[in-house]
Design a protein that fits this description.
- The complex is a heterodimer of chains A (123) and B (143).
- Chain A is an all-beta fold.
- Chain A has a single domain, classed as Immunoglobulin-like (Sandwich), CATH 2.60.40.790.
- Chain A is 0% helix and 43% strand.
- In chain A, the strands form two sheets. A four-stranded antiparallel β-sheet of chain A has the order 1-2-8-7, with no helix packed on it. A four-stranded antiparallel β-sheet of chain A has the order 6-4-3-9, with no helix packed on it.
- By secondary structure, chain B is mostly beta strands.
- Helix content of chain B is 10%, strand content 41%.
- In chain B, strands 1-2-8-7 form a four-stranded antiparallel β-sheet, with no helix packed on it.
- The N and C termini of chain B lie far apart (48 Å).
- The chains are: A mainly beta (123), B mainly beta (143).
- Chains A and B meet through strand 1, strand 2 and strand 5 of A and strand 1, strand 2, strand 5 and strand 8 of B.
Chain lengths: 123, 143
Amino acid sequence: MSEQRQVAESRHEEAALLPPVDVIEDANGITLYADLPGVPKDRLNIQVEAETLTIEGEIALAMPEGMEATHTEVGVPRYRRVFTLSKELDSGKVAAQFNQGVLKLRIPKAEHAQPRKISVQIE
Amino acid sequence: MIYRSFFPRDLFSEMERLQRELAQSFEWPTSIRGMARGFPALNVGSTPKSVEIYAFAPGLDPAALNVQIEKGVLTVEGERPAEDVPEKAAVHIDERFRGRFRRVVTLPDDIDPNAVSAKYRDGVLHISVARKEAAQPRRIAIQ
């Protein structure tokens, strides 16, 4: 069913960076990797609502007092990316790992899609 | 300065002026190393006591990172391995950086290359380079 899989990104009012991702699908499910450097575990927010997967994170860096930025490539302290999951994925069994700024999500496939709202626990 | 001229202006020259001003507002690189781009993304900040460099390099083994200061130039290099892709798997999106990387930052003249600390946390390498004592602002007592 990989051909029918849809990935959609939506725009929000609040400015956010689009984190780069890798999405790999095998027979049993989908694995998603996202780069979210600078986001501590408690500032990461993953939501699965209906068929929408939202990944959000806020960057928190240790900065000395009175620091002035002289060169900035990461200019927005927030990441956000939204995906639309397809029906055969079991959004209730999403497993998340977050290590040194890399998020790994595993979304297994299910026989029957069961639409419901799930909050994802981060390991 | 923009003011309304008593004489009507040529529309095309006005458009040209607008375009020129627009182009100037986007800064072109003046650095010899060109446009800042690539992996890892860098933020640089400065305080009277130190220069702070933040390299956004997630998912790395800190032991595999090589940070060097030579002739006032800071180099961050390393390699980011690809994730394992199981057999018979389809890669739908492939955006994350992998492979060797190397980024270079020119440091100010007043830094002390022996007083450097580097920490890796939440996928960000934070390098703090202290400035020399003599270069720090000092209050001078008036007699």
